[in-house]
Design a protein that fits this description.
Blueprint (H helix, E strand, L loop, with lengths): L11 H4 L2 H7 L8 E10 L2 H11 L3 E3 L7 E5 L2 E7 L11 E8 L2 H10 L6 H4 L5 E3 L2 E3 L5 E7 L3 E7 L8 E9 L2 H12 L2 E3 L6 E5 L2 E7 L12 E8 L2 H10 L4 E8 L4 E7 L5 E2 L1
Parallel strand pairs: 1-4, 5-9, 10-13
Antiparallel strand pairs: 1-14, 2-3, 3-4, 5-10, 6-7, 7-8, 8-9, 11-12, 12-13, 15-16, 16-17
Length: 277
């Protein structure tokens, strides 16, 4: 497999620079497995930085001597790889990613003013009523969807009591058997299964919700798409990889130490096609 060097840098913030990781990936201190990053195939790095940093409110950062473009949010790093993609997030096993915001109207207005399509009407679940780009799904539920560069779909979820302007909320998977997919993530990453939502299954890890929606439409894997892969931060990665291998998981890239950066990495693909670091 020919992977460009930027792929190998995506755990630097946790493994090689722990002070930075613990300042931003707060959830990494709460469990041996926590969510760490989204890794985006960006056909235009500048356009993606305008979206993730200038519009959504992330912070553009550098880690050590790495030249990787990174945008930091509370509990997640977004890595931007300079390469083409074969399509957006829709139609893949990772349909979209979600952020919580204290004022969804303000978030929608910023995205709209920056020229990004608000696609809530088309993307909201059937039980959600949409008005002026905002979806109302119950007494306290307000959501919205925006389409970023390279058809990267992002959801806003309003949480008025939150501290700060924006933070990671969820990753939304799609598969024919959502329950089986949820149970696999619960078993593999020691996530906590939650009561089912109105239209999807739910599991949780520190700092992130994993949502799983059943779909009758075919989905493809993530590698090569706008959201190329997702990344987890793991204590004692070598032992974790051995456990997964014993459970029958085959690695695309086995446990590898990168002494120059002080990190260790591994890649594999879930049974539905999601590429995972």
């Amino acid at each position: 497999m020919n992977m460009r060097p930027v792929l190998f840098l995506s755990l630097v913030a946790f493994a090689a620079v722990p002070a930075l990781a613990h300042a931003q990936l707060v959830a990494a201190r709460q469990a041996p497995v926590a969510y760490g990053h989204h890794h985006v195939s960006a056909t235009d790095i500048a356009a993606h930085k305008r979206f993730w940093a200038d519009t959504l409110g992330g912070t553009s950062i550098k880690v050590g001597t790495s030249t990787a473009e990174i945008v930091r949010f509370p509990n997640v790093l977004v890595f931007l790889a300079d390469r083409d993609s074969t399509g957006g997030t829709k139609g893949t096993t990772v349909n979209h990613v979600g952020f919580r915001v204290p004022d969804i109207g303000a978030a929608v207005d910023r995205a709209r003013a920056a020229g990004y399509p608000i696609v809530t009407e088309a993307e909201a679940p059937a039980n959600v009523t949409v008005k002026d780009g905002i979806g109302y799904g119950g007494t306290n539920t307000r959501i919205a969807y925006v389409m970023g560069p390279d058809d990267t779909k992002v959801e806003f979820v309003e949480e008025k009591a939150m501290i700060g302007p924006i933070a990671l909320h969820h990753i939304h998977f799609a598969a024919p058997d959502a329950l089986a997919m949820r149970d696999w993530y619960v078993k593999t990453f020691n996530a906590t299964a939650m009561p089912s939502g109105a239209t999807f299954e739910i599991a949780e890890l520190p700092g992130v919700r994993l949502s799983f929606t059943p779909t009758k439409e075919p989905v493809v894997g993530t590698q090569g798409r706008a959201m190329d892969h997702i990344g987890f931060e793991v204590e004692n990665l070598e032992a974790f990889c051995k456990e997964l291998e014993a459970a029958g998981i085959t690695f695309d890239r086995p446990f590898t130490q990168v002494p120059a950066l002080g990190i260790s990495i591994a890649f594999f693909t879930d049974p539905w096609g999601t590429y995972i670091e």
